[in-house]
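Researcher: Good morning. I'm working through a list of sequences from a screen, and I'd like to move beyond sequence-only analysis. For each chain I'm collecting a predicted structure so we can compare shapes side by side. This is the next one on the list. No need for commentary yet; just the structure.
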Amino acid sequence: MSKPTVKCPTCQKNQQWDSSNPFRPFCSERCKLVDLGAWANEEYQIPESKSASNYSSAEDEEQIDRDIPPTMH
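Model: Good morning. Structure tokens for this chain:
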């Protein structure tokens, strides 16, 4: 049974997915460090969900407070 082949996320070079490569999923330490540097420079960003951005300002929080009906006692 042959081992699966994957592309390095940095250089796109095909390689076997093998436990002998300590840099998986990258093909080398260089590609791993290039990717780490891109994260450190904020070149990659996880998009903010719209629901989270609705709570980002005090004005939005006041609107939400007005939309919640008072609790009956």
